[in-house]
């Protein structure tokens, strides 16, 4: 029930004292208390008044604040009094495991009644028991039909008989309770053909399925319906906005917390992007075959013979137009691609404008796909009606839907891609980024059409924020260049009323615990080969000072491979390099080596630059060869830069520099994870201290001791003050 702001403030303050007294090893942190109270103050009205406008608390909480406990305590307290749930959304599995395995149980001890908790994953991470049963019969399944677009393992292999023994062994583990039906519980060998048995919306008959009461996906949904706190990921939350059968509560029935919120914009872009492979028709043949077979079995009055032919012909015509537009001529020449003809990797359509020669073929594909989609959807309704009328048809219908579902998903992808590719922006809105990707698999050419909204802010303003009631967005790196402006602009919150921004400072003494050394090189960072060679030599000298754990974060595979190749044999033996094994295995090896008192150097790319918790000796040095600018040939970034330039705006200033600053802050943040850590951070890119934008980045970083090193001599870096 509603309480006064003063009473709520007092109750949250008292809860924090209880939390500190109850949790073993917990110590009072001013920033943690500040964050808890700020969330309560910001969201109270929205939590208790359903008609109140959406409230969003955007909080950058420095490393060491203990933000997870702070937002959980505040959100659960508010939710209980308002009679709603809490949804915690993260970007990584590691944080989900921390929230469920550590933070929530500890908080439960401090509350009068511990909250019930459920972990929710995307449907595709759960087993479909019907598909597993089908696989155990030895039926042939086409991997290309089951895999999503862009899965290179599926192109262009023939129909493959899945090993019956493997599926039967897996089914026995499922039937006997030795496996929980989740993808994440399987070893690498069992994941080779996961798509063959993964649950998906298109092949699911829901309550009408005979396996409904023994299905891991619906078991998770049932657990979620009873839980007070749901832990999910950003993509699942965004997907729930477009689904009538979501496992998550609606935005007005929950308080949502987006942890690792700096990923929210990029996740939104990826979620609302679409793609379709134009060069493969096997899924369409399989769809027609499955529809015909099911219609005959169930005596459906509408026939499906030849139903895929119009779309197949339209796709053929589109392929011919695409090849002509790309300059290669007729499709008959494709076999020559591997013998001298050079295919460009990508063709992007400038300003989101399709060439006139492609508009008609794309319209034909869209119209044919829409008609087939409508016809298949009508058949789906017929199947549900038949199942409702006759329970004995349940197993038969479930098997047919499981067969139809995967290729039907490919049809939906083609339709969505065609619609977005043909779309034109509303007045004042940015265009859609549209492009074609080309790749060779043996003598076969794979052509994939892709389209993506240009700005995450547009889709988040349209889909996410209007659906929400009370939201917390938090991370250790929401600010760029010392300000929230970039984050607010990217997420569509800029200029939106009732948005609180708050920085909660880290309790760490960065000036004492960390030193950032900028090492300008003679070679320009823009001369990639020469710069990398020089950095490799400098880094080898600096590595002599490393006693235990170090982390090297590279901007590209080319750079990573060159640095690794330059290491002498005795150093190479001490390196754990991304790609040489699963990340968890590399981290275990690293920890074991450091525990033995040995030197160990982790080398990786962006995925090693955040989410790694390497306290103490595990990471006493962080080496950054080059400022982590995004790939210059990213088609969405190219299209965005093009659009900004047309408006007389600077893509570099408005987009590139802030995004790089956030990424750099994440990378350098790997070095100091606790009050007792000490680390040296080294960046071999003179632009960081020698350019105006680089000095802006430096000024926005935590207050490390910052020096520039030239010819072995270190001098302090004096920086301009950042206006908040």
Query: What summary fits the major beta sheet?
Result: 8 strands, mixed
SS class: alpha/beta
Strand order of the largest sheet: 14-15-13-16-17-12-18-19
Uncertain stretches: 140-148, 150-160, 329-335, 337-343
Helix segment tally = 25
CATH class of the largest domain: Alpha Beta
What count of domains describes the coordinates?
4
CATH homologous superfamily identity of the largest domain: P-loop containing nucleotide triphosphate hydrolases
Q: What percentage of the residues does DSSP assign to strands (E)? A: 5-15%
* C-alpha geometry: globular
**Mind telling me which CATH architecture of the largest domain this is?**
3-Layer(aba) Sandwich
> In terms of quaternary structure, what is this?
single chain
Helix content: 40-55%
For the residues shown, what is the average pLDDT? 89
Can you tell me the CATH topology of the largest domain? Rossmann fold
Overview of this structure, please?
There is one protein chain. With 724 residues, the protein is α/β, with parallel strands linked by helices. It has four domains: 5-115 and 228-269 and 469-504, Rossmann fold (3-Layer(aba) Sandwich), CATH 3.40.50; 123-218, no CATH class; 273-456, no CATH class; 510-716, P-loop containing nucleotide triphosphate hydrolases (Rossmann fold). Helix 12 (309-326) runs antiparallel to helix 13, helix 13 packs antiparallel against helix 14 (394-422) and helix 23 (651-668) crosses helix 25 (692-700). This is ATP-dependent DNA helicase DinG. Residues 18-315 form the Helicase ATP-binding domain. Pfam families: DEAD_2 (PF06733), Helicase_C_2 (PF13307). One of its GO terms (biological process) is DNA repair.
